[in-house]
């Protein structure tokens, strides 16, 4: 391709430049095919044909943006990527097979042996394992710090620090970090800030507006919203997405399947209204839990009692999100075994809530983090992150709030505290 010849690009859907997030969630993507379908098409094909050998060569050489092979280019997947990028306010996005594969792709694209990462110790348990154990084997060092103590983040910076990683609100304590402050620390030291936006989604929070460079998603959660498929994504600049991560995706293949991309694409259409309704339910549930004698403490950013309430309301568009965690009482001086027994008692007495470690479903889900999502961590790691054996996490769904409180009351009211 001649130096002055611009790269051929795929067309974009014609939308108003000032279209709001609710409109983008329904309309952004690729133009319709010649058949004029109104609902986005599902392209179940492994490869794509070319009009001639020269065009095939140009496309494989990345001289022309086109669909080549579904491991890294597919129309359905691109529609999902364009829509999510538009919602997050980033230039581009890349879909992955799961949320964890999005983090894997990010690490593989950005880091090498000898590099250093600073990560909140309050992130999802599998994320801690991936940074500490799996990439520790390859010479990538990770320092885990307090989610909320900026002095710890600053003190952890080294000359070889390349990435700061946070999840806000965190899982399961719903701790909220100051995104802008972390971005300032990262950029002052030549590093990038990545934010896992799984709990809030762009319907509630857009970290790029507060200085984040990369946004990580588990599309398995609220983006799909109905617990149907696995999916993930990274959102960021075109330079990072297409210049750094796409070559890794092309070789490593942690690809998002077109079918799963289509499911999440359709889920995005109702994201804003689902998040509003589920967050409203969560707020009512959190307020109810605070009044229960058998509840020791409630963790929910929408409550004034939450340590980062004001920051959460500023960063999260005045919304607390749809995840509530709380600790059940087990009597004065109760040890870890007693706390675990109390938590299990509450969980096992539910009839409506689904006992599963997933979150983001329209169905309310309940789990014991210390033995599920964070079960692979050592007890010291869990306690350092504030996760006790008495903690219960609830991903609040769309059921009637009175039915949810009645479901939890069965276990709470029968606890002997």
Q: From the 3D structure, determine the CATH topology of the largest domain.
A: Aspartate Aminotransferase, domain 2
Count of strand segments: 12
What is the structural class? alpha/beta
Give the H and E element order.
HHHEHEHEHEHEEEHHHEHEHEEHEH
Mean pLDDT: 94
Percentage of residues in strands: 5-15%
Radius of gyration: 22 Å
Percentage of residues assigned to helices:
25-40%
Tell me the name of the CATH class of the largest domain: Alpha Beta
Largest sheet: 7 strands, mixed
Spatial sequence of strands, sheet with the most strands: 1-7-6-5-4-2-3
The number of distinct structural domains comes to: 2
Indicate the overall shape: globular
Q: Spans of 5+ residues with little confidence (pLDDT < 50)?
A: none
Question: What is the correct CATH architecture of the largest domain?
Answer: 3-Layer(aba) Sandwich
Which properties best describe this structure?
417 residues; alpha/beta; Aspartate Aminotransferase, domain 2; Aspartate Aminotransferase, domain 1; 2 domains; seven-stranded mixed sheet; five-stranded mixed sheet; 12 strands; globular
């Amino acid at each position: 391709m001649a130096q002055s010849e611009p790269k051929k690009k795929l067309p974009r859907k014609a939308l108003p430049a000032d279209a709001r997030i609710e409109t983008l969630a329904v309309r952004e993507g690729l133009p319709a095919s010649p058949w004029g379908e109104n609902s986005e098409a599902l392209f179940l094909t492994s490869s794509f044909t070319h009009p001639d050998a020269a065009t095939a060569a140009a496309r494989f050489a990345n001289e022309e943006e086109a669909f080549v092979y579904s491991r890294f280019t597919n129309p359905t997947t691109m529609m999902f990527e364009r829509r999510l990028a538009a919602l997050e306010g980033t230039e581009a996005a890349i879909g992955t097979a799961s949320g964890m594969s999005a983090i894997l792709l990010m690490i593989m694209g950005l880091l090498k042996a000898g590099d250093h990462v600073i990560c909140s110790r309050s992130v999802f348990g599998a994320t801690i394992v991936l940074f500490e154990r799996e990439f520790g084997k390859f010479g990538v060092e990770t320092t885990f710090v307090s989610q909320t103590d900026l002095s710890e983040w600053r003190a952890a910076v080294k000359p070889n620090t390349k990435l700061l990683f946070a999840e806000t609100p965190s899982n399961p304590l719903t701790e909220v970090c100051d995104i802008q402050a972390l971005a300032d620390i990262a950029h002052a030291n030549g590093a990038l800030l990545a934010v896992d936006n799984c709990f809030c989604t762009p319907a509630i929070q857009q970290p790029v507006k507060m200085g984040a460079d990369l946004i990580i998603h588990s599309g398995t959660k609220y983006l799909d919203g109905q617990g149907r498929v696995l999916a993930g994504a990274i959102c960021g600049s075109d330079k990072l997405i297409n210049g750094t991560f796409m070559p890794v995706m092309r070789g490593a293949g942690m690809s998002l399947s077109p079918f799963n991309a289509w499911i999440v694409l359709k889920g995005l259409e109702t994201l804003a209204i689902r998040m509003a309704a589920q967050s409203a339910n969560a707020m009512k549930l959190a307020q109810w839990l605070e009044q229960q004698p058998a509840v020791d403490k409630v963790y929910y950013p929408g409550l004034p009692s939450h340590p980062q309430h004001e920051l959460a309301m500023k960063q999260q568009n005045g919304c607390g999100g749809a995840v509530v965690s709380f600790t059940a009482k087990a009597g004065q001086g109760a040890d870890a075994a007693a706390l675990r027994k109390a938590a299990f008692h509450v969980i096992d007495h539910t009839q409506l809530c689904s006992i599963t470690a997933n979150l983001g479903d329209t169905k309310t889900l309940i789990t014991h983090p210390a033995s599920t999502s964070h079960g692979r961590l050592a007890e010291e790691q869990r306690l350092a992150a504030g996760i006790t054996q008495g903690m219960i996490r609830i991903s609040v769904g769309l059921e009637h709030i009175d039915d949810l409180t009645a479901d939890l009351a069965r276990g709470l009211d029968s606890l002997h505290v």
